[in-house]
Write a structure and sequence with these properties.
By secondary structure, the protein is of the alpha/beta class. Helices cover 41% and strands 19% of the residues.
Length: 315
């Protein structure tokens, strides 16, 4: 690469930056600290001729002598320009050294980052109470956003907009890291004082009653239970379709509809609803945590995942 001398006062451009490498910056730092060519060369573990060559390159890059011989004949004295560079040089090299050293240890008591977890409503009701309690107690300066998953969730995980996705295993992508959180069975819920009573719910009665169904996409009238009934040659009447889990306990408490939902969700409302095992076998609901490999080694992200695992284990 040809030597380029920049006139004093001319703004630096990319060609000027291309003339600077880390070796030159370290040489400048050593000379500023030692004020002696021999000691600076020893500090860098290079010979004096090699350091002199670097100093000549620095003089061309900065268009300044940078160091002049000391009056006593021993050592060198920095010019005004070299002294001006010292603070910025320390900052630049400090940042580079921190990059090489790796991230600082994660301290939940001091960290102020915002965590974003995409989670569906059903697992949110199950996990959020314990999860949020841990974060507010252990990491009081952090913030937590629980958001609904969107169709572009994988891209958002890759961009770092979402830290963790909590969902069913059908959303698993091969490029994502994953860990199972829990499996859940199902219960059927009815209002207190339901006219059918509180005894065992047989299949005939189950099929005759009006049902409430939660349709995530909105407006659907068939789901997992209907698939299981079809396999038995049976069917039911879904009288009401809603799009949010939050409405289900309210509607059930004020109607004669019944609803079959994951056990962990319904147990939150056991004081206001009667809960009965459904009269048919249903595959368990599986919930997993997914995250992008870009976050796998991040200490703060690992801490967040551990809090989620503990919340899942506590339910």
């Amino acid at each position: 690469m040809a030597d380029v001398e920049r006139s004093p006062g001319r703004p630096a451009d990319d060609s000027d930056l291309a003339e600077i490498d880390l070796g030159l910056l370290l040489a400048l730092e050593a000379l500023l600290r030692e004020r002696n060519v021999t000691r600076a060369a020893s500090r860098l573990n290079i010979g004096q001729p090699a350091l002199s060559a670097r100093l000549n390159r620095l003089r061309q890059v900065f268009a300044d002598p940078l160091f002049v011989p000391a009056a006593a004949g021993r050592g060198v004295v920095p010019t005004t320009r070299a002294v001006e560079l010292q603070t910025e040089l320390a900052e630049v090299l400090g940042r580079l050294r921190r990059m090489v050293e790796g991230p600082a240890a994660f301290d939940p008591a001091r960290d102020q980052r915002t965590f974003v977890v995409a989670i569906h409503e059903n697992p949110a009701v199950t996990l959020a109470p314990g999860f949020v309690a841990q974060l507010t107690a252990m990491a009081p300066r952090t913030r937590l956003a629980l958001v609904h998953p969107t169709p572009d969730i994988v891209d958002r995980l890759e961009r770092g907009e979402i830290d963790i996705l909590v969902t069913g295993p059908d959303r698993i992508s091969g490029e994502l890291m994953q860990r199972p959180l829990f499996e859940d069975s199902f219960l059927t819920a009815q209002r207190k004082g339901h006219p059918r009573g509180t005894g065992t719910l047989d299949l005939d009665t189950f099929c005759e009653l009006d049902h409430l169904l939660i349709s995530a996409d909105g407006g659907g009238f068939a789901g997992l239970v209907d698939d299981a009934l079809t396999a038995l040659g049976r069917s039911r009447r879904v009288a009401v379709s809603i799009q949010t889990y939050a409405l289900a306990p309210v509607i059930l408490a004020h109607s004669d509809c019944i609803c079959t939902l994951p056990r962990r969700f319904l147990m939150r409302f056991a004081h206001e609803l009667d809960l009965i095992p459904p009269p048919l076998d249903l595959p368990p609901a599986r919930i997993v945590a997914l995250w992008h490999p870009r976050n796998q080694e991040d200490a703060g992200h690992a801490w967040l995942r551990d809090r989620l695992y503990q919340a899942a284990a506590a339910n």
